[in-house]
From TrEMBL:
GO terms for molecular function: helicase activity; hydrolase activity. It holds the Pfam family Helicase_C. It comes from Kitasatospora phosalacinea. The keyword Thylakoid does not apply. Residues 303-460 form the Helicase ATP-binding domain. The lineage of its organism: Bacteria, Bacillati, Actinomycetota, Actinomycetes, Kitasatosporales. SUPFAM superfamilies: P-loop containing nucleoside triphosphate hydrolases. Coiled coil: none annotated. Residues 545-710 form the Helicase C-terminal domain. This is DEAD/DEAH box helicase. InterPro entries: Helicase_ATP-bd, Helicase_C-like, P-loop_NTPase, SNF2-like_sf, SNF2/RAD54-like_C, SNF2_N. Transmembrane segments: none annotated. Keywords: ATP-binding, Helicase, Hydrolase, Nucleotide-binding. Its EC number is 3.6.4.-.
Length: 736
């Protein structure tokens, strides 16, 4: 320091002090944003608990005390509910004639026990169809954190660490800021000051090289943006509900929110793994900087499980984000190894989804090994790294390039040891350090199939996995395969999510689909364009995906309702579902189709079909023309809804889904909308998003709009004409 001079030392200290001030301001800004969410959440939560307690009669206090309390006196003075007792003070109760000190204490304790039980079972749910002041305030506060994203949370944590690291050196370095102060300090303090300045200089050099200033500035700007309006935040919530709830879940896990603690559902969130294995997984380092969305606690645990065990099956129930967990694993590995290459193998029907999810959820580049440009994509992947998404069939032609990780989606496709695709996957898995199989198909009662999958991953486990183990029950099975298998269920880890989960199933048209579509476009036949994806059932990409979705629902015993605008499409769907499965979905068996609800069917016969559908044991499928099945029928027996094509009227889709999502529905409803990337579907979705959604948001506030959607819907003939013209121009190619 002496060689560099006091001026240099003062400059280092001043710069470090300013950086610490910026860091502390960022920590404060993030804490304020979190506190705003926590306050809004507490208000909603306490209101829900209070409403629940107000619905419990005061007589229930006897249940807690085994009938020892007399509650007639309370009812006589108007305290008729548990809420009225819980809100009272001891003095309030003592003023009631006939209630003494011991009785007052027992009453308060009993009411407290019930209130605690209610609070532990209460989850805050956000309903955009019925917003109120409390939930709107919560969504508005959450909106800030969702838009800021995980980068802001990581930046705030980094700022807190920087603040802590700078505190001691800045205190020691004060003796280096002036000659007189240094002379008066003594030799020992001057030496400590010199070392502190050197330490701060090194810290500043690292911070500048690492881009800390830019990260802090971006996070501060995101956290300090003005609050959005009510309509904007609710529309954003409808599109990104999972991200809003992910933020809530993370805050709950950190103990920032009222309600159940993070450890209450830990066993279920960790797949009931043995304690020692779960502890090993929790200790696994996990770098999520490559993820652009927040991971739920159970999702981060799934990623850690895959990293710690290296070759595993993630068998979570459909809808828990297996794709996101797999991508998080790849993002972690990419942070450790620059330009790392990863391979995802999946059915052709989900190629587009994998490419989209990779781009939307991570900073990794996505390359698709499919179609005429697949070799060019492979060359880009080899040169720059990232994720190469390929089909099972393409493994035969894909060069044997080494990869850092292999992800196999719909892994039940490789359960047959004799199949070529199984052998190809097994060969790659054997040569790859990290392998992740994804499947939502329950395996507890299919031990022989599961043995095949385990043999690809951790063959040493096979000796402890006898063929009859499945008969001992799911928990015994999971304990035996725990080192390689993790499964969680929706009801265990998504208790606070909205009751409707919407998934857009994007796929590419097959060659036959494209030919039928091009012919319809050439004719200018808008309705033929909408149903062209089902013109050739044997080669229909949408029909293949529909069969996969229905087969998955059948595995879990779920009922499915399939909607289409066209009776011809429903007839095609019925023929496909009634036909035996030839192995294209990786599963066997047929679905139970109870009938087709069409506009020409009398109302009483429609109800008979619905009754038969409801009464069917386990899995069943009901087909509905959306104009007929979308209104007036109670389809709450279904918790899987498939929309064969996007509708011109957004409200028509909403009303169709509302037939399943209504009072009495006890299971979460999943809505799958089948869409083709290279068709009018993309244009429809783009045109109807934005103004249509805002307008529809207002329409749902109106009773008249609910009763007559055609009165407010923006879709009309001009929209169809515009789309036809756009598609004709697109297929004609660029003008020469």
């Amino acid at each position: 320091m002496a060689g560099r001079g006091g001026r240099w030392a003062r400059g280092v200290v001043v710069a470090a002090g300013r950086r610490r001030e910026v860091a502390r301001a960022l920590v404060a800004d993030h804490a304020a944003a979190v506190a705003e969410v926590a306050a809004a959440h507490r208000q909603v939560f306490e209101q829900l608990v209070r409403a629940e307690l107000e619905a419990i009669p005061v007589e229930r206090l006897k249940d807690v005390t085994e009938g020892r309390l007399q509650t007639g006196t309370l009812r006589a003075v108007g305290r008729t509910t548990v809420a009225a007792v819980h809100a009272a003070t001891r003095q309030d109760l003592l003023r009631i004639p006939g209630i003494g000190g011991p009785t007052a204490a027992h009453l308060l304790a009993a009411a407290g026990q019930i209130a605690t039980a209610v609070a532990e079972g209460t989850a805050v749910r956000l309903d955009p169809a019925h917003p109120d002041a409390g939930t709107t305030a919560l969504v508005t506060a959450l909106h800030r954190l969702v838009l800021a994203g995980p980068a802001a949370r990581r930046a705030a944590a980094e700022a807190a660490e920087l603040d802590a690291r700078y505190e001691a050196p800045l205190a020691e370095a004060r003796y280096a800021r002036g000659r007189l102060r240094g002379l008066l300090a003594g030799a020992e303090k001057r030496e400590r000051a010199r070392r502190a300045v050197e330490s701060l200089a090194a810290e500043e050099e690292r911070a500048q090289a690492d881009g800390v200033e830019l990260r802090f500035a971006q996070a501060a700007a995101d956290l300090l943006r003005p609050p959005a309006g009510e309509v904007e935040v609710w529309v954003e919530f409808e599109h990104r509900a999972a991200e809003f709830y992910a933020e809530l879940a993370l805050l709950a896990e950190d103990g920032r929110l009222a309600g159940p603690t993070a450890t209450d559902g830990r066993a279920a969130a960790e797949g009931h793994l043995p304690d020692g294995l779960a502890e090993q997984v929790r200790a696994q380092p996990f770098d999520d900087r490559g993820c652009t969305v927040s991971l739920r606690g159970y999702q981060a645990f799934g990623a850690r499980f895959a990293l710690a065990r290296k070759k595993v099956v993630i068998g979570d129930e459909m809808g828990l984000g297996k794709t996101v967990q797999a991508l998080a694993v790849l993002a972690h590995l990419a942070a450790e190894q620059a330009a790392a290459r990863f391979l995802v193998v999946c059915p052709a029907s989900v190629l587009v989804n994998w490419q989209r999810e990779t781009a939307a959820r991570t900073t990794l580049a996505a390359h698709r090994y499919h179609g005429p440009d697949r070799e060019a994509a492979r060359e880009r992947w080899l040169a720059t790294g990232g994720v190469l998404v390929a089909t099972y069939e393409s493994l035969r032609t894909l060069a044997d390039d080494p990869v850092a990780a292999l992800v196999v989606d719909e892994a039940h496709f490789v359960k047959n040891p004799a199949a070529l695709r199984t052998r190809l996957v097994a060969e790659r898995a054997a040569r790859t350090e990290h392998v992740l199989f994804l499947t939502g198909t329950p395996m507890e009662n299919r031990v022989e199939e599961f043995r095949t999958l385990i043999g690809h991953l951790q063959p040493d486990l096979l000796t402890g996995l006898p063929a009859g183990l499945g008969a001992l029950g799911p928990l015994a099975f999971r304990r035996a395969v725990a080192p390689a298998y993790l499964r969680r269920n929706q009801q265990d880890v998504l208790t606070e999510l909205p009751d409707v989960v919407r998934v857009d199933e994007w796929d590419e048209l097959s060659a036959a689909d494209r030919a039928a579509y091009a012919a319809a476009v050439a004719e200018g036949n808008f309705m033929a364009m909408r149903r062209a994806a089902y013109a050739d059932p044997a080669h229909s990409a949408k029909l293949r995906r529909l069969r996969e979705l229905v087969a998955g629902a059948a595995e879990s015993g779920h009922k499915v309702v399939v909607f289409s605008y066209f009776r011809e499409v429903l007839a095609t769907v019925r023929a496909a579902l009634d036909a035996p499965d030839t192995g294209r979905t990786g599963r066997t068996g047929t679905s139970v189709v109870t009938g087709t609800v069409a506009g020409s069917l009398p109302a009483d016969q429609r109800q008979e079909l619905v009754d038969a559908f409801t009464a069917a044991e386990g899995h069943a499928v009901l087909l509905c023309q959306i104009q007929a099945g979308g209104t007036g029928l109670n389809l709450q027996a279904a918790n899987v809804v498939v929309l064969c094509e996007p509708q011109l009227k957004p409200t028509l889709e909403d009303q169709a889904v509302a037939r399943a999502q209504r009072m009495g529905q006890v299971r979460r409803v999943r809505v799958h909308r089948l869409l083709a990337t290279d068709s009018l579907d993309r244009r429809l979705v783009e045109l109807l998003r934005g103004k249509a959604e805002l307008f529809d948001h207002y329409a749902r506030r109106s009773d008249l709009a609910e009763a007559a959607p055609e009165a407010v819907d923006i879709s009309d003939r001009a929209l169809a004409v515009r789309i036809v013209e756009d598609e004709q121009l697109r297929l004609a190619g660029p003008a020469n």
